[in-house]
Amino acid sequence: MLQAGLKDTTGLDRALKVIPLRLSQVISYWGYPYENYNVVTKDGYVLGIYRIPHGRGCPRTDPRPVVYLQHGLVASANNWICNLPNNSLAFLLADTGYDVWMGNSRGNTWSRKHLKFSPKSPEFWAFSVDEMAKYDLPATIDFIVEKTGQERLFYVGHSQGTTIAFIAFSTNPELAKRIKIFFALAPVITVKYTHSPLRKLTNLSREGVKVLFGDKMFSPHTFFDQFIATKVCNQKLFHRICSNFLFSFCGFDPKNLNMSRLDVYLAHSPAGTSVQNMLHWAQAVHSGVFQAFDWGNPYQNMIHFQQFTPPLYNVTKMEVPTAMWSGGHDIVADPRDIESLLPNITRLIYYKCIPHYNHVDFYLGQDATQEIYQDLIRMMEDYC
C-alpha cells in the first residue's frame, strides 16, 4: 500500500481506472475504513452518503469532530478522494483526527433511487438546487447528527455545494444552528459574469434545451466516457486532449494538475444531474440574481411557492460563520460575482483569493493542501 506523500510509481492504482469503482472501494484501496448509508429525504429520494470514521491506524476513542463535504455541479463525493491521500481533502481530514462524511446530491451516480419514481420517468428528474437545499441537506445532516450523537458539525462545500448551503442556511435557521463553520470553496450564488461554455445554454429557449437534452438526466456517465478514460486518457500523448474534454465547462491549469491521473478523474466524471437543474443554472445567468427555479408560469409557481414569481434568496439572513476561497482564473465563479457576494456574508471570518486558481483547483490542484487545506484545518482546530 502506498503511503501518503509518495508518488504512485508502482501502477497499483490502475485498478481505480478500469471502472467507476464504488467510493467505498476507492477509500478502502488507500487503507482507510469506510461506512456507507442510504438517506431517505422527505420527498422520497434515496441518497448514498459515505463516511471515513478515522484515518489510517488506530482510531481515537473520544468523539471525533464531524466534517461534512458536499460536491459541486454534475459531480459526486469522489471529488474529495480522487487524488493521492496527501492531496485529497477527505483523507487529510481523516488523518488529522476528523470524522469525515461525504454527500451525494440527488440524481448523481450514487443517488439515483426514489421510493416511488423510476429514474426512467420525468418525475424523478423534476428537481434543482432548490430541492437539494430543502430536502437533501437537512435529511443528510439529521442522519449524521443521529448517527454520531454530535449536534454540530463543520461544512465544506465546493461550487454547487456552496449554493445549496447558502440557500439552506439562509432559509432554515434550525439547520444553520448545527453548522460550526461553513467553508465555501469557489462559492456560487449568482453567475451573472460566468464565461463557462455552459453559458451557451442561455441562448436556447427552455423548449430548445429539452429538445437537445430531454427532460430527465443531464450529463450522465456513459460507456463512451469510460472507454475514453481507460483506453485513451491513460496515454500521455492524449493528456492535453483529454483534459480539454474533461474540464471544458470549468477550465483547468495543466501545471497544477496531476496529469497522470486524468483517466481517474474522467472515469468518475461527470456524475450527472437533472436537465431542470441546468435550466435553473441558465435562469441564474439570465437574471443575475439568486432566485428559486421558475417553473414556467404563474400557476406552477403558485403551487410551489405560494406566489406568482420565484422567491429571491437572501444570503444576508445566513448567520453561520463563513470562510471563503475564490480563484482569480475561475470561469464559473467569476471574481466579479464573488465581489458582489462578499458584502452580503454577515459573518465572514476569513477570505482568500488565489490568483492562479480555476474552478477545479479547489479539489484537484496539486497545491491545494498548501493554498487551502492547511488553513481550513487550522481553523477547525482553533474552533475545537
What does this structure look like?
This protein has 384 residues and is α/β, with parallel strands linked by helices. Helix content is 34%, strand content 14%. It is built from 14 helices and eleven strands. The chain has helices spanning 23-29, 89-96, 129-148, 160-171, 173-176, 206-213, 223-232, 239-246, 262-267, 275-287, 298-305, 335-341, 361-364, 368-383; strands at residues 35-40, 45-52, 66-70, 99-102, 113-114, 153-158, 179-185, 217-218, 273-274, 322-327, 348-354. Strands 1, 2, 3, 4, 5, 6, 7, 10 and 11 form a nine-stranded mixed β-sheet that branches. Strands 8-9 form a two-stranded antiparallel ribbon. Helix 3 (129-148) crosses helix 4. The longest helix has 20 residues, at 129-148. The radius of gyration is 20 Å and the shape is globular. The model is unreliable at 1-19 and 226-232 (pLDDT under 50).
Furnish the topology, listing elements before pairings.
Blueprint: H1 23-29, E1 35-40, E2 45-52, E3 66-70, H2 89-96, E4 99-102, E5 113-114, H3 129-148, E6 153-158, H4 160-171, H5 173-176, E7 179-185, H6 206-213, E8 217-218, H7 223-232, H8 239-246, H9 262-267, E9 273-274, H10 275-287, H11 298-305, E10 322-327, H12 335-341, E11 348-354, H13 361-364, H14 368-383
Parallel strand pairs: 3-4, 3-6, 6-7, 7-10, 10-11
Antiparallel strand pairs: 1-2, 2-4, 2-5, 8-9
Helix pairs in contact: 3-4
